[in-house]
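Running this now, will post back.
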Amino acid sequence: MTMVRNAFIAGASRAAIVIGVLGFGLQGAALAADQADEAAPQAAEQSSDQSDIVVTARRRGENLAKVPAVVAAFSGEQLAQRGIQQQSDLQSAVPGLVVRQTQSNNNLNYVIRGQSVDAFSGSATAIVPYVNEVQFAPGGSSSFFDLESVQVLKGPQGTLFGRNATGGAVLVTTAKPVNALAGSVKIAAGNFDYVNASAMVNLPLIDDRIILRAAFDSTTREGFQRNLFNGQRPGSIERQVGRISLLIRPTETITNTSVVQVESANGNNSSSVVYSVYQCGQVDPTGRPLTCSAGSLFGPQLDAAIGFPGAWDIYLAAHPGANPDGIFAALAAQQNGRFWDVSENNLTKHRGRNAFLTNTTEIDLGESTQLKNIFGLSRSHNSDLAGQIGVPYLILSTYNALVGPPKLGDNSNDELVRTISEELQLQGKLLDDRLTYVVGGYAARTRSRLFYPATYTDLSPVFPLIPDVSTSLSDFKQEDTQQAVYGQLTYDLGGVGIPGLTANAGYRYTWEKITSDQLARSRFFGQPQLEVKFDKPSWLLGLDYQATPTLLLYAQTRGSWRAGGINGIAPPIDALPDAGGSLYLPETTEDIEIGAKFNGVVAGQRGHLYLATYRQNVKNIQRTQLINVPVGGGVTQPTLFTVNVPKARIQGFEFDAGIDLADWLTIGATGAYTDAKYRDNQLEAFGELYFFGPYGDAPKWSGTLNAQVRLPIAKDRGQLSLRADVYGQTSFYFANTANTRTPGTRLPGYRLVNLRADWSDFMGGEGLTASLFVRNVFNKGYYTGGFALGDLLGVNSANVGEPRMGGAELRYSF
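Update: finished.
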């Protein structure tokens, strides 16, 4: 294992050679495999066969094994078999995908190949989520139910999908209405008072002309944490979702499908836990003193820090329940106590109201030509109340303590995002079907409003809270408009004497404008509107070679970007951060990816092996950074800016393999090695140097081992299937300045075991499936992300993953 690990760490350049060698080896195996396919047609029914998995990574239906790109795809049935019920569950199924929690389980970010988005940066997400090809507001947590598929695309995107992205896209497709009476109902229950109920009905109102599909899902669960300070159970879920899909086919050549979904989420947020605290006198490797305000003020050391004997006793008398031994004792108690216990003096609550409409019209123009119009509307409104540190003192909280007690509403974090988009697309084939094309135009407008109140270091009554010193109110709205034209061509070179070789080329040009206005509750209210404009291309060039019917080799290079913008939390000055402004530059990226995909039969056994290596260069990486801004008289004020780190390089290797060892046994493995580094990590602002590194949110190793066993039982009693998944990842940093300003932000690696048993046609009942499931079988404590506040407050917090979750499920389909 050590030799293999060292070989992978050698880098993407060596991995490319490995894939080339493997490609030739696979080609020889594939020739034999093609012959074996003739002798073993029954193998196509085995579960490791991927010949029937259809993906839409190139905006048309294609077999997964024939798409020259890294795509992880799951049908609705596969999602159920793997127990994937929400976004966070995807991490254990997709190598190299991190679903990071920044502040709570209701604040999620996708990370692929080191590409993500920092909290409070204002940046566009690097991994864009879509529902039915329509961009949806990222960040929230919702249920996966009644879906046709979920697809994860890796690497820069932009030549085909709605918004430019430097890291990838996650495509969610809801189940389409079908011309048959069908339905299902499911009920599940488990520990932590977990209850999930869902139902679906599919009704052809007019045969093959008007079809209605309705689905509903409801989930409740008690919080998996205990707050020892106030008795609350953070991490609770109370979510209801309804969806209606209507297909209208007025003629044989025109199909219109509308989908409306409404979601209501309540419950609360999981609570952060204190992870590291800096001592006064600590310095970073550059010799710069670390911020230690939390460590110096919250504890008996307060008396000496402010020269006021008895100050800490006065604080404790006004704050019953606070740990009398101070923040370092609270840190020790957290580290030595039950992993999921927290002592947080803030209440935690969550309220979300999310809805979307997608409308897709497809017109068959004949001669393999289709005109497609995709319209989308979405609205996401989330209000949150939560502590940020996980200690029994108010060091940072997302409410305005000057207004009154913490509550959802006017004094808590509130975000509203509304998007409207329109896309017209033409696709078809020319030149005796050798040339496949997709061309189109895209326009979108996103309006957002964010109110973020924060209260810092509440030491009342020793020090009373002071507006704009003890509290910070961000209240602003932004509008982001985009227009783009795009086209992508695939040309089969077989007609010019090179059978199996295909060339791919894509180009997109995007114009984007962003405006920002400070609103009435902002400390910057009255400042003029800011506006920025950007326009850049995205592109793709590639070759793929179908060496045999079961082996595809490919190479491609891509370029994309995400727009610069305006950080509404920073002072609204029309300048970059080094001049005290809130603007930041576009982030650009280029990559090279080489891969091989084999799906066939070897030695009588059906299996698949997908390999890919890549190298990606990124410039002007968008990161949030706390900068001490001079305000006069030798005084500085810590202010949050979005900065551009000059250069980074991410390279790595990924694989996906599976084989049917027998009619009753399938095993598989997926893995990713990610080597992400800043190549130019230095920037200067207000005469002070800032150094970035190591690269955050990028575990070097991650992957899954899985096995599925189909047990023989009497034919009239149904079929029993047992599945086990083991997911593991190495350590990673949740800060991008861990070597300097924010040490103590490295999260340990972990392994999780998930088990599931499905008995279909249970006891002979056709359409009835009974299941048992357990996630995190060994109740492993692990972290899913963190909030690096060390440079501001001298303390960092982390988010904990879910403990063992188990239960039973009964589902009936007809």
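Residues 275 and 797 are 5 Å apart (CA to CA). More later if anyone needs it.
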